[in-house]
Amino acid sequence: MKYPVLFLTFLIASCTKVETTALQQWQHVAQGSYAAEIAQDGRYAVVSSVQDGLAFWDLEQNALKYQWQHDPEQENLVFNLAISPDNSHVLSADQQNFALWRTDTGQNVGFWQLDQSTVRDIAVSADGAHMLIGKSDGAVQHITLSSGRRLEFLGHSEKINSVAMSPNGRYALSGGNDYQAYLWDTDSAQIIHTFSHPSRVSKVALDPQGRFAFTADSQSLARIWDIQTGALVSTLQITARQQVFSAVRFSDDGDHLLTGAPTRNLVLWRVSDGQELQRWRVAPRQGSRPASAVVHAVAFLSPTRIISESSSGYAEVWEINYD
Question: Is residue 288 part of a domain?
Answer without folding.
Answer: yes
